[in-house]
Amino acid sequence: MSSPNPILPENRSRPLDRLRQTIRFDVPASLVVFLVAVPLSLGIAVASGAPVAAGLIAAAAGGIVAGLLGGSPLQVSGPAAGLTVVVAETVAEFGWEATCAITLMAGLLQVVLGATRLGRYALAISPTVVSAMLAAIGISIVLGQLNVALGGRSQPSALENVRHIVGNAQNPNVHAVLAGLGVIGILLVWPRLPRRVRAVPGQLVAVVALTLLAAAWLPGAERVHLGGDLLDEIGSVALPEGTPLAVAGAVLTVALIASVESLLSAVAVDKLHGGPRSNLDRELVGQGLANAASGALGGLPVTGVIVRSSTNVAAGARTRASGVLHGVWVLLFALVLVGLVEQIPLAALAGLLIMMGTGLVRPADISQAHARGELWIYGLTIAGVLALNLIEGVMIGLVAALVLVLWRLVHVRIDVRSSGRSADGRERWLVEVHGSLSFLATPTLVSRLDTIPDGQVVELDLLVDYLDPAGRDQLDHWRGRYETGGGTVLVEHSGPHGAEAPRQERALKAPPVSPRGLLPWGAWQDVRPDRTGEHHPLALGVREYHRRHAVPLRPVYEGLAEAQEAHAVFLTCVDSRVVPNLITSSGPGDLLTVRTLGNLVPEPDSPDSSVAAPMLFGVDDLGVDTVVVCGHSGCGAITSALESTRAGEMPAGPVGDWLRHAVPAILEWQAGHPVGAAAAAAGRCEVDQVAQVNVAVMIGRLEELLAGRDVRLVGLFLDIADGTLQILRGDGFTTLTDAETDELAHLMEARPPEPA
């Protein structure tokens, strides 16, 4: 399948083609990213308590070094909002020049992590903790920059920022407030403007516009102060003074946060284009070298930045040349146009950062945390970061996530309920177990099982994702005791079971199976007609099978490789809403399925053997002793046949020839067939009445076809409106409830009558 923004392999195209491609796609994209990167880099430097030039140095180093050496071709690197709090704390503790050295050392640590292929394990951190960490950083940025927008200074802690906000709000700098509100207003309105206008980055427009307005009408707003030429800032590095443990903690904090943010960004960028996937270990090496270069030159820490990266992809970038060129443009800007930077009001950058900070608190992350039952971890992590510091707050979140994992291993949800009577009159008990069933949780399950009266039928349904051998042995012991007392225990679970299953001395882990396998395409992918040319739902469905189901089903197919052992022949309509394996909860090797228009069967003496052949093959060659005929409500074939019969003429062609097989069922219905009368009494429409009669008539035809064979025939009817299944009993269909499945099981177990 093609991609809306394909990437051509860099090592296969000719040099001239690469040059043309760079000029056509990457140069324009690099200019767009450059325009986004400059104001963001300046704002992040201000928020971090670092020299403003450090943001430009980091943007240039990240773009050029990580762009050339990283493993994610379209990722754009530079200073990121996610590290502002860490940098601010580090600057406050060690000073700016020592912070540069810490950035350099963190970069070298990243290189080691990437070279030893350990970088990808940074992604093992709980997503809830990561999203909460970013949200806490966003809140810290907003609190600090609110002070700047009011004309004050950002404070090192959230509590101090809140106190100063209250004080500054009582006596604000009106010019600063107007500059900050102006930027925020432009950024709020910009996404609603026409696409042609939005082609220019809103951040750039906001900062430039407020800089121009401030020059004329807001003289009281404090400006950015670079403190000298950019070249003067290069090389301002000094070894940090402090305990080795404190320095190591700062290096580790910067390295881990920069690594996690870069790797998560790389994974996200991969989803935006159809080109080569990121090499995460190489990307971490590239990020480490960029951080080492940035720290050595006096710049901020560098990470992959999703805002710039997504802008890069949307602008049409095809290769890593775009990210590299963006860094070159930043460097030229910093050297040539540095005087313009000092005209920017600090409050304008504060408004830009307030918008960035609020963007880090994402409602989707909160919803996902709530859905996973981890909202308390999300809130606890944020509280820890705001009340203490970043590293301690994240550690609190990680410990909470670990506690939750351990609790889930011990805790299982157990539902015990009576579900009617079995065929022999005993009470049936259904026990459903959800979660992970280890030896730690099994005692709870056994204590619940002990509350069930003796001598009954117990269905133990283990809907678990983990069952260890020790827990299984405890269940086997309880089952033996219960059956010794006269009870019956039926166990259903996803691991190996029964006499043929080996008793492995290892944990049985159910392979993951996607619920998409049970849902129609429209429930999980875009099936609009204008989209199917590029991403046809059939192709995406096949891809989902290979991704999610092929591996879990591999042992099943291996067991069926030599021969099939179907348990039933299932005849039903071609209607796409009728899915035999879904309504019977069956899998490969269970059903020999035959589908015909209207689930029709030709007369036994008909020359058409399209149904007779698979029926006889299943019964005679495979030894199947059960044949099912399943009709359904709202059948289009029966509708057409009924209307054509009343009109006195069938449609021309193959469809009309086939629908003639339905005429005898229609005549039976018109003559008052008891199944049709029962359907009418139940309030069924005429088409459904005929469809139910048709099931009975087709069963009669199959009785003739299979005469003299040891076969049972079962009639089913699927109600499309509510998904319920009915079974033909005597002269009518009855809905199968949970309690009535015993009768169906008894019917299926009973031997068919001996042929006359």
From TrEMBL:
Belongs to the beta-class carbonic anhydrase family. The chain crosses the membrane at residues 27-47, 54-74, 94-114, 121-143, 173-190, 202-220, 245-269, 328-355, 375-407. Keywords: Membrane, Transmembrane, Transmembrane helix. Catalyzes the reversible hydration of carbon dioxide to form bicarbonate. It comes from the Bacteria. It is a multi-pass membrane protein. It holds the Pfam family Pro_CA. It is found in: Membrane. Gene3D superfamilies: Carbonic anhydrase (3.40.1050.10). This is Transmembrane carbonic anhydrase. Residues 25-370 form the SLC26A/SulP transporter domain.
